[in-house]
């Protein structure tokens, strides 16, 4: 897909700050440090669009990026950073629930997990939340350059098993370092929001 334009449109905490034009939305979520900012920058071919996290767990807003004046890319706040206070975790939950519980514009949520590791319990909770609210889920396995291609399938089955993915739910490997998997992720994004 050709990115003709991408602009950050808003950073929201409250519903009143969400876009109101009814355009389709595709959201990205994952634990802190999973490579979410790098993935956003890679997909949009921008160097420093989404801030890569110097202080993990600090971004507590929902960022809406308008792509090709056609749909929104929604960067959801990361979770699972061990050192944050409980009050911060609660805030994260409130911000997320507010967005997820009633968002007809939202076509699918792309859940980012590290290709190398079994998903954490927080990842499992996030996946269950996505399903609970009734959204399509696509898994992006980040940092794919860290293992050899021959090992992908083994790692996919570990991820699939821990999250208990449904058969038709996809796992797509991506590497922001090597810029691989970008087209595959775009194809899936387009499929999800045009469906
Ligand atoms: P975020 O907290 O989820 O936004 O994660 P970042 O995008 O800030 O990335 C966290 C760390 O992982 C940084 O040190 C990145 O350089 C590294 N990283 C992100 N993507 C990749 C990747 O595809 N390959 C490798 N090898 N490292 C990556």
UniProtKB/TrEMBL annotation:
<feature type="domain" description="EngB-type G">
    <location>
        <begin position="22"/>
        <end position="195"/>
    </location>
</feature>
<dbReference type="InterPro" id="IPR030393">
    <property type="entry name" value="G_ENGB_dom"/>
</dbReference>
<keyword id="KW-0131">Cell cycle</keyword>
<dbReference type="GO" id="GO:0000917">
    <property type="term" value="P:division septum assembly"/>
</dbReference>
<dbReference type="GO" id="GO:0005829">
    <property type="term" value="C:cytosol"/>
</dbReference>
<dbReference type="InterPro" id="IPR006073">
    <property type="entry name" value="GTP-bd"/>
</dbReference>
<protein>
    <recommendedName>
        <fullName>Probable GTP-binding protein EngB</fullName>
    </recommendedName>
</protein>
<keyword id="KW-0717">Septation</keyword>
<keyword id="KW-0132">Cell division</keyword>
<comment type="similarity">
    <text>Belongs to the TRAFAC class TrmE-Era-EngA-EngB-Septin-like GTPase superfamily. EngB GTPase family.</text>
</comment>
<keyword id="KW-0479">Metal-binding</keyword>
<comment type="function">
    <text>Necessary for normal cell division and for the maintenance of normal septation.</text>
</comment>
<keyword id="KW-0342">GTP-binding</keyword>
<keyword id="KW-0547">Nucleotide-binding</keyword>
<dbReference type="GO" id="GO:0005525">
    <property type="term" value="F:GTP binding"/>
</dbReference>
<keyword id="KW-0460">Magnesium</keyword>
<dbReference type="Pfam" id="PF01926">
    <property type="entry name" value="MMR_HSR1"/>
</dbReference>
<dbReference type="InterPro" id="IPR027417">
    <property type="entry name" value="P-loop_NTPase"/>
</dbReference>
<dbReference type="GO" id="GO:0046872">
    <property type="term" value="F:metal ion binding"/>
</dbReference>
<dbReference type="InterPro" id="IPR019987">
    <property type="entry name" value="GTP-bd_ribosome_bio_YsxC"/>
</dbReference>
């Amino acid at each position: 897909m050709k990115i003709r334009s991408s602009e950050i449109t808003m950073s929201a905490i409250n519903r009143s700050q969400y876009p109101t034009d009814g355009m389709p939305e595709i959201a990205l979520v994952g634990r802190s440090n999973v490579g979410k900012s790098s993935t956003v920058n890679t997909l949009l071919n921008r160097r420093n669009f989404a801030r890569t996290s110097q202080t993990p767990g600090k971004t507590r807003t929902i960022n809406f990026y308008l792509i090709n004046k056609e749909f929104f890319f929604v960067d959801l706040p990361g979770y699972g950073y061990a050192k944050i206070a409980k009050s911060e975790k609660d805030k994260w939950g409130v911000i997320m629930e507010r967005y997820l519980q009633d968002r007809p514009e939202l076509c699918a949520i792309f859940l980012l997990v590290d290709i190398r590791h079994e998903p954490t319990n927080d990842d499992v909770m996030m996946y269950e939340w996505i399903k609970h609210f009734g959204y399509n889920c696509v898994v992006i396995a980040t940092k794919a350059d860290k293992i050899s291609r021959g090992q992908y399938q083994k790692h996919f089955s570990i991820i699939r098993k821990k999250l208990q993915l449904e058969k038709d739910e996809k796992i797509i490997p991506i590497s922001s370092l090597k810029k691989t998997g970008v087209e595959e992720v775009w194809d899936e994004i387009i499929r999800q929001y045009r469906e």
